[in-house]
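**User:**
If convenient, please work through this fold.
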Amino acid sequence: MIFPFKAVNLKAVNVRIIKIFEDNIGQFFQDNYYSGDSELKRVGRMVLNKEIVLSSDRAVDYGSWNIFSLDLAELIETEPGAIYNVSITFDRSQSLLPCAAEDKEEAQKPFKRNTEVERFNDPPTGDYYWDYYYEDYNWSEREDPCSDSYYVFKKNRNEASRNVLASDLGIIAKGGQGTDLLVAVTSLVSSEPLSGVELEIYNYQQQLMELRQTDQKGMATIALESKPYLLIAKYGRQRGYLRLDDGSALSTSMFDVSGNKNSQGIKGYLYGERGVWRPGDSIYMCFVLEDKNEILPGNHPVRFELFTPESQLYLNKTRTSGLNGVYDFRTATGADAPTGNWLAKVSVGGSSFTKTVKIETVKPNRLKINIDFGTEVLKRGPVAGTLNALWLHGALARNLKADIEMDLRSTITTFEEHQGYVFDDPAKSFESEEEMIFEGKLDSLGNARFTPGIKVGKEAPGMLQAFFKTRVFENSGDFSVDRFPVLYSPFKHYVGVKIPEGPGWNGALYSNESNLIPIVTVDESGKPVDIPNLSIEIYDVNWRWWWNRDEYDDLASYVGNRSRHLIKKDKISTVNGKAMYEMNFDKNLWGRKLIRITDPSGGHSTGQTFYLDYRGYWETNTQEGPGGAEMLSFTTDKKEYQVGEEIILNLPEIEEGRALVS
């Protein structure tokens, strides 16, 4: 068992090894992840506390970082199934710095090693965090290697500490919303599946829930009646451990795992014969019930309720039968009924379904108006539209006066294939005024051609929503009005970014570790395009409480002041419309940040705010996250498949290995 570590300006180190006994593994994982060191006195015993001289058979420059290694098998007698906590510290007497050798008589004396061993004979006293407090410790000198406080601080921080388990068992456990747990066990050395591995499932109270063995494929499906906590795999003398609680699951925030969840086992849809009713009108509501699993008994009651805008119950009806799952509820409001948004609610089998019912005293249109551009998204350049009007009885609205007013507003840019990505720049804001783009008359067929003439520069944060308010006037002076929303694309290409959920507090990313940030580039239709030399900028963004904010306190001010707030610049190119940016600051940073990615040729930019933390800041053993699943770039031969159809999956090129596809 080789344990490598790096050291600089040290001639020796103190090595402490605590053995966590196999019988106590369940209790250890109650308070710890694999790398935790909380409450070790309850579950382990110190088996080694020794000074190791750092030497080599080659010339070593101790003033530079060097890699040394320990063979644990030569230091202790290892036991399969036990976890060993290896901790490496140093004191002032082991430092090679010139200032550390000064005042040796007054320097901090090395601690007595037998005292540390004896501490494991007594129960914890609450001082295990700072076990070796030094009476002359000065917090302000904790980073000064010429001070005793530096060595006390480093010893208690215990930064060079790892838990070691010797095992060849690779364990994967997958669970969903049901009760089944799929477990796969393979050899870490050969990746071959292991059959006959004994699997023990325990709850949090360390009580055995299920006992199974893996089949010839190294898999086992275990039906559980309650939530598991720990899995122990036994294969000969080898042992493997896996926590099964929700906090230990790999993060899937980088993957599309969305879907429809039907918790009650039934589906329903409530609709009316139109969208707006006037007071006194009859209301015909229909409810469609789907019960494929036949959960509900025959003639199960379906309850309908209608509530006023003040949430008062206006009426209720109950039916026990319908036609092919369709239930008809007929009602009406009084002529003096209040206007506003009423609520229709259907309750059945523990589930409820609602629909807003609009009751308004409106003057109805006498003309049916329509605008057609021949496309769902308006693009840059001249685009002609057609206005058409008909009388509601079907006659042509000949030679009537009409006008069209356009209003542009910001909207959220989304593409169906890239859910969760941000395609809008929060550092940009867009404002426009209503503009009259057409005034004239319809022709003899009730049509009119017009060109919006939209002029928007690169200041748009993303796609815009164009609203066309259209009025057609009758000869009497009355008019009918309608409003048509249409997306407008001011850019040919769009950049999207997706910040993953980090392991830090409130989803913060660790600044002293690598973070993979996925980036995509698409055209106006959402199809992937390759864009070279995307500009990446990361800004330091101060936080303001809502009562301190004003109209100038926005992200644009930070982007505009690059010299003060820009903390990192980089470039990246997309291939097949995708790129993975490895963000690492190599230092401890914290607080609110903004990442901004710009297409230098097309002008579009996107951005997203996130929080930074660093590993070791406010971190406890129970807060340490399990990390995220590694993202591999793979493709399929098609985007959609029918049930039973063969799927061709292209994985990254590797020399040897296995894949578990589920």
